[in-house]
């Protein structure tokens, strides 16, 4: 009887833990793979935001918690961009535009990350691509939610305003329905 009760408690604990993770991820950015972002963007054109990180990067982890879990930042990213997390040290192959990107052992980095960051490896770096997958901008370094918000809006919204004017007049992220 004790083993049945113990099994039930363990099972409930596992189910509860899985539910907690699902709820937490629904509140943050809905990250997808680079390959999935490319496919989705072909069907529903959006700009792509790429968080280039490594597992050992402390500032990357801080940005995940402080910036990407901020409700207004996460909601805006989910509604405006196809958000991608790209491990700069991933070991698999990514095929993009008929070119295979692989891990480059000598550089200890993935060729896609090297290409996106113009071989200037800095973590975290936030990369913005337009709807046809051309580079808009790579923004290196940790960005808190307050710093990230005007950058997201500047690249996410159509504008003819220069960055300094936009930043001075920025009052907050637009509210959008989406994703």
Automatic annotation (TrEMBL):
Gene3D superfamilies: Glutaredoxin. Residues 25-137 form the Spermatogenesis-associated protein 20-like TRX domain. It comes from the Bacteria. PANTHER family: SPERMATOGENESIS-ASSOCIATED PROTEIN 20. Keywords: Redox-active center. This is Spermatogenesis-associated protein 20-like TRX domain-containing protein.
